[in-house]
Amino acid sequence: MLATVLYGCAEPGSTFPEWGQRPLEVEIGPGRGGFALDYAALHPSRLLIAIETRKADCELIRARAARRGLGNLDVFQGDAKLLLPRMFSSGALSGVHIQFPDPWWKTRHHKRRMVDVEFALLLRRLLKAGGVVDFRTDVPAYFREAVQTWLEAGFEQLPDAAPNVLSTRERRYAITGQPVFRARFGNPEGDVRPIKSDRTGRDWRDVRRK
Ligand SMILES: C[S@@+](CC[C@H](N)C(=O)[O-])C[C@H]1O[C@@H](n2cnc3c(N)ncnc32)[C@H](O)[C@@H]1O
């Protein structure tokens, strides 16, 4: 508690907000919130927490959520990799949505890519058994690498299912016809142990689309 007062942010694993009894889900990088807003409206019994680095997007989503009277969507500004282990205890989450994470094309930016084995293991720990990762991207190499990463971390791939809510970007692609690669993964029962892996998330390359 003292650390919270002195430094403003709890250490990972030390103290967590009280989220209540509703099934708790997270969207990482909601952008302008097309998915978050409609998903929260469609599932009023769930609590959706969106974590977004861009302040303007956070404010936009909050304003739209307030206009729509959504009491089950909350938005936090910050880096999801830093916030997740500080906001949620082990097994707290029922679902995590990661849609069109930035590809970070430049070599010097590869270290910013969201999906790597360490991140996948963090999500395995934060998700309850049976919790689901909903992953979508428009970059084929990111998709191939991420699928292997989720599997290597111990997730189980679920059967394909058409999404019932599209993200802001996905709505654009639904009109232009640009392909979207989607997969969902279930968190199996059992302890999560560190694994030795060469999968850094930094090695994949693809053709950059403008
Ligand atoms: C390509 S946009 C996709 C937005 C939205 N998911 C969609 O499909 O329309 C990626 C979003 O992730 C956010 N983002 C990037 N890194 C992040 C991080 N470490 N934590 C939280 N959000 C992040 C960006 O600010 C941006 O809004």
Structure keywords:
seven-stranded mixed β-sheet; 32% helix; single chain; 210 residues; Rossmann fold; binds S-adenosylmethionine; alpha/beta; 7 strands; 7 helices
Provide a descriptive summary of the structure in words.
The chain has 210 residues and is α/β, with parallel strands linked by helices. It is 32% helix and 20% strand. The chain has one domain (19-186): Rossmann fold, CATH 3.40.50.150. It has helices spanning 2-7, 34-42, 55-67, 80-87, 117-126, 140-152, 168-176, and strands at 24-28, 47-52, 73-77, 93-99, 127-137, 156-157, 181-186. It has a 7-stranded mixed sheet with strand order 3-2-1-4-5-7-6, sandwiched between helices. The radius of gyration is 17 Å and the shape is globular. Mean pLDDT is 93; it is low at 1-5. The structure holds S-adenosylmethionine. S-adenosylmethionine binds at residues 28-31, 34, 51-54, 57, 79-81, 99-102, 167-170.
